[in-house]
Amino acid sequence: MSIAKLETCGLRKEYPGTVALDSVSLQFEGGKIHALLGKNGAGKSTLVKLLSGAIQPTAGKIFVDGREVSFHGPSEAFAGGIATVYQELSLVPQLTVAENIFLGRARKRSGTRGLLIDWRQTFSDARQLLAEMEVELDVQRPVAALGVAQQQIVEIAKAMSFRPSALLLDEPTSALAQHETQSLFKLIRRLAQNGVAIIYITHRLQELEWIADQVSVLRDGKLIGTLEIADARAEKISEMMFGQTVQKNRPADFKATGETVLMVRDLTRKPAFHDVSFSLQRGEILGIAGLLGSGRSELLKAIYGAEPFDSGEIEIAGRIVRKTDPIRMKKFKLAFTPEDRKAEGLIQILSTRANLCLAGLKVVAPKGWLNKKRENQIVNRLVQDLDIQLVNLEYPVASLSGGNQQKVVIGNWLTTHPQIILLDEPTRGVDVQAKQQIFQIMWDLSREGISSIFVSSELEELVQVCHRILIMKKGTIAEQVKPDQLTADALFVRCLEK
Fold it and tell me: Which residue has the higher pLDDT, 247 or 59?
C-alpha cells in the first residue's frame, strides 16, 4: 500500500448562530497516527463529519493524495479513500463477522444475475483481509458472540475492506478495558505501518504516549496547534484544550453520614453476577471497579429493575424489595443513568428541554397538565446549575456535545428528587473539563445527602471521586478498598482475575 496523505485547507462549517469549524488547515500523513484532541464542542465531530461526507463545508477544501475531493455522502467518502469508524458501532449482531465486513457488498455467484451470494468466496475474502491485518477471528461467528474489543476490530476491518488512504477512528477505546486497549493499539500501529493515514480522536490523554506520533488540538472551532508527540506534555495539551483549567480533587469535607440507605443481599442473576452483597450510606459515593464482563453494568440494571434478578433481596430505607421494575424503583427515589446515553438515556430527536423533563413529568405536570411556568423554572435552573452549554433549548438534544448530553441525562433524573443515583460510565466519551463538572455534580449531591453508585472503566476516576470502591471479579464482589490507600495502577492489578 502506498503512503497516503489527507489534507484540509481553510475548512469552515457554519450553522445558524454559530461557527462550528473555523478555517482549519491540517495535514495527515500515511504511516503516522495523528491524534485529534479538543473538549466537547471544540469542532472534532464537525471535522470528522466533513471528512466522512456526512456534511458539506461552508468553505475550504479537502485533498486526498494531492487531489481535491468533494463528498456528498459517506459512500462517496469511502469510494474516495476516507473510511470512518465511529464511537457507536454500526454492526448487525445477528450476522457473522464476514457478513458485517462486506455488508451490502458480498461476492455474488456467477450466473445468478447477482441474486445469490457466493458465501465461500465471501468468507475467503474476510479471512484474507483479517490475515493482512494480522488478526485471528472466526469469520463465520455471529458478531453478537464477540466481546466489545473484537467487535471494534470487526468495525475497523469493515472500514479497511474499502482499502482507504485515511482511516478516522472516533474514540475507539472508550468501551475497552486496559488490556484490550493495548491489543487494539497494536492493530492500529500495523495499519499505519502499511501506509494508511490514521486520525485518532480521543479524550484519554494518557493514551497519547502509547499510540500517537503527532497531536493536533482544536478549541472553539479553531486549530490551536500541532505538536510532535515528544513535545506533547500533558500540561501543554491541557492548556491548549482548555486554557486555564483547574483540576478538582475530592473535597476534604466530603464524608458520608453512616446511615444505611440501601442494602443488597445475595443478589444473583446468572451468568452475569451472583451472591452480591453490599451496603450504601446516605451521601456516599460508592465506586464499583472491575474488568469488562465482571458484571458491573448488569448489577446496576438489576438493582434499578431494568433487568430481572434470579434471587436475593434489596432493602431501601428499611423496606424489602424482592421484585424490581423501573416504575417501582423510581417511587423508592432511585435514578439510573445508563452506560449508553444515546440509545437508553436520551431521545435524540426531542429537544434538550423535553429530555430534561422526561423522568420528572409528574413534577413538571403534577395534575396531568403541563405547567409551562414551572417547566421553565426547572429547566432553566438545571441548565444553570449543571452548566449545560447549548445554542437553543428547542434544538434536538443530538446537537449537543457528548459532555453536555451526559449532563442532560443527569439533569433529567434530578427533576425526580432522587435519594440514590446509579451512574453507569457517566464520563464515557466526554472531555476532561466535562468530567470535572460531572464529578463536582456528584460531590454537590453527596453534600445534600444523595447517595451514588458509580461504575467506571477509568479506574483513576474511581480513586479520585469515591468514598469506597468495591472490586467485582467473575460476577461477584471480591473485595472492598479505600481510594486514599491505593493508586489507579494498584486498583487495576487488584481487578485482574486470578
Answer: 59
Question: What type of residue is 309?
Answer: F
For residue 75, give every residue at least 6 positions away whose Cβ sits within 8 Å of its Cβ, in sequence order, or none.
53
- Average pLDDT, rounded, for the chain: 86
**How confident is the model at residue 1, as a pLDDT?**
45
Contact predicate 303/481, CB 8 Å: no
Distance CA 437, CA 178 (A): 24
Residue 239 CB partners (closer than 8 Å, separation 6+):
none
Which pLDDT score, from 0 to 100, does residue 186 have? 86
Nearest to 312 by CA among 265, 280, 271: 265
Q: What is the mean pLDDT of residues 146-152?
A: 83
Q: Which structural domains are found in the chain, ordered by start?
A: 5-242 (3.40.50.300), 260-495 (3.40.50.300)
Return d(Cα 112, Cα 82) in angstroms, integer. 32
C-alpha distances out from residue 145 to 150, 159, 317, Å: 10, 21, 40
pLDDT at 180 over 60: yes
Say how far apart CA 40 and CA 399 lie, in whole Å.
12
For residues 476 and 272, the answer to whether their CB atoms sit within 8 Å is no
Element (H, E) at 291: none
Give the model's pLDDT for residue 123. Answer: 92
Contacts 24+ apart (CB under 8 A), 99-107: 100/143, 100/154, 100/158, 101/126, 101/129, 101/139, 101/154, 101/157, 101/158, 101/161, 102/126, 102/158, 102/161, 103/158, 105/161
- Whether the Cβ atoms of residue 6 and residue 166 lie closer than 8 Å to each other: yes
Q: Kindly give, in sequence order, each residue whose CB lies less than 8 Å from that of residue 350, ignoring residues fewer than 6 positions away.
A: 358, 396, 397
**Per-residue pLDDT reduced to its tens digit, 56-111:** 999 999 999 888 999 998 889 988 889 998 877 788 989 999 999 998 887 788 77
Alpha carbon of 57 to those of 22, 23, 216, 268: distances in Å? 10, 10, 20, 53
For residue 168, pLDDT over 80 is answered with: yes
Task: Let me know how long the chain is.
Answer: 498
336: β partners: 422
**Is residue 427 within 8 Å of residue 407, measured between CB atoms?**
no
Question: How many other C-beta atoms can be found within 10 angstroms of the C-beta atom of residue 416?
Answer: 18
Per-residue model confidence as pLDDT tens digits over 274-322 = 999 999 999 999 999 987 678 898 999 999 999 999 999 999 988 998 7
Of the two residues 171 and 22, the one the predictor is more confident about is 22
> How far from the centroid of its chain's Cα atoms is residue 257's Cα?
33
Cβ count within 10 A of residue 445: 19
Q: Which residues pair with 166 in a beta bridge?
A: 82, 197
